[in-house]
Amino acid sequence: MPKLIAVIHYLDDATSIKNADVVAAAGYDGVCLIHMNGQDDLIEDAAVAIKQRHPGLLVITNRLSMHPADMVRRDAELGLDGSWADNPGVSSRGITPLASEIEDTVFKVRESKPDFLFFGSVAFKTQPHDPDPATAAVKAKNLGWIATTSGSATGVAPEEDKLERMKTAIASFDLAVASGITPENAGTLCEHADWVLVSTGISATFYDFDPLKAAALRAAAPRD
């Protein structure tokens, strides 16, 4: 069953830390901080504080305004565990110069931080429809990324067939799902996922996690 990364929609430092406490208590593997208006610099103090407070928790960011290669470098400088990009330039049609730049940056970061994670979105809700998600996942895997996919919109789960085809294509390499996973569907969909990045499925409000929902998802997607 997958590792769980709780996606914190940043409101302020105190709320972010409180949410991290909730999911740490529920046994999650990490958190991802994101500012939905793209004020990426505001999330940094909270991210560092969470890492200091919960050293065993993976802490990553998704920065909507920053160039993905700059995000990778900055997250590494801050001592965080990884980065996630919505539009890193990979699809079944091929790999763009942006993707190659990210690949080079992640490779350089891993020279000193070999476990640094990069979640590269493919066949993703913010991208044009990709008719061949499995091939897109292979291309992301070949760049050394965790292929990360979603349903058609925030809170919408991907079809099980889509996940099955993507996971089959990349075999032992990791696949992440970043929308629509809930305690109700986790038992089925998580059979095909190694990571789940979740917010809506465990939230009480846009900015606050529900401890009961968080615990229910962890129970529905237990560690191996």
Question: How does this model look, in words?
Answer:
- The chain has one domain (3-220): TIM Barrel (Alpha-Beta Barrel).
- The chain is globular.
- The strands form two sheets. The protein has an eight-stranded parallel β-barrel, surrounded by five helices. It has a two-stranded antiparallel ribbon with strand order 5-6.
- It is α/β, with parallel strands linked by helices and 224 residues long.
- Helix content is 38%, strand content 18%.
- The longest helix is centred in the middle third of the chain and has 16 residues, at 97-112.
- Helix 1 (13-25) packs parallel to helix 2 (44-53), helix 3 runs parallel beside helix 4 and helix 5 (133-142) runs parallel beside helix 6.
- The mean pLDDT is 96.
- The protein has helices at 13-25, 44-53, 68-77, 97-112, 133-142, 160-170, 186-189, 211-220; strands at 3-9, 30-34, 58-61, 82-85, 90-91, 94-95, 117-121, 146-149, 175-177, 195-198.
